[in-house]
Fold this sequence. Notes:
Elements: E1 10-14, H1 23-36, E2 41-45, H2 51-55, H3 67-71, H4 77-80, E3 82-83, E4 89-92, H5 101-104, H6 114-125, E5 131-135, H7 142-150, E6 153-159, H8 164-181, E7 187-196, H9 201-214, E8 218-224, H10 227-231, H11 239-242, H12 247-268
Parallel strand pairs: 1-5, 1-6, 2-4, 2-5, 6-7, 7-8
Antiparallel strand pairs: 3-4
Helix pairs in contact: 1-12, 6-7
The structure holds adenosine-5'-diphosphate and magnesium ion.
The site of adenosine-5'-diphosphate (ADP) has 18 residues, from helix 1, strand 7 and helix 10.
Amino acid sequence: MDAISGQPMRIITIANQKGGVGKTTTAINLATALAAVGKRTLLIDLDPQGNASTGLGIEKDDRDVSSYDVLMEAASISEAATATAVPSLSIIPSTLDLLGLEMEISGAPGRAYRLRDALHFHQVDTPLFDFVLIDCPPSLNLLTINAMAAADSILVPLQCEFFALEGLSQLLQTVEQVRDTLNPALALHGIVLTMYDGRNNLAAQVVRDVRSYMGEHVYDTIIPRNVRVSEAPSFGKPVVLYDMKCPGSQAYIRLASEIIQRERRLVAA
Ligand code: ADP
Ligand code: MG
């Protein structure tokens, strides 16, 4: 239990095996928007590319303790969590070391539970966070499996494009496998449609298809394609801080409040 609010720490994994669908952008901006309304938030960067770390202004030289160290059982969550420029938001940065992790722990028993165990220990010890968001690499490898095994729920960014649903069914199969083997409690938190372009008829059709196929799992909020969103990372800032008024920022702020509402319903149920 969370020491201050009495609510349990919520762990949400942001995953999709496709690259470029908005996982990292969603992780950074959702984390920032949650922190902005006072939720103590931790973002764990599990992608060796480290885009979430860069996007939050953590320079390569400042990644002394990383998610690799946590997965190697060389550092605790508290030791690895680094403050960001956003109040109430910490990050566990990633480094390229993560590329070798799968080989290094391939024979180790419990290798899929490294992150779960670290977070569990943290929760029992001194929970400092209301929300933990995990940014996954674009594949269904051991890193993503660790993130799914550790999470209460999974959040799937889906780009409004033709093959969106095809990739989704493969991902949902993996979620089902993780439920059967590693984490029976893993829930689908929701699907967020990203990079929506209202001038494109196909995008509108994809929205209708995804909503009719996945129903209530799809968040009401749709993230529009917005150039300010793509500019922000080069300034090491979430777009929510870089330009709070732009449509992309406003959408991520709405998504954060939708997520808080869903969490309230889950806790009350
Ligand atoms: P992933 O983590 O799934 O690979 P990213 O979040 O890195 O995807 O997004 C891929 C690219 O698309 C990045 O260059 C990012 O800046 C850009 N992007 C993401 N969301 C938007 C958006 N809503 N509008 C415009 N560009 C976006
Ligand atoms: Mg990414």
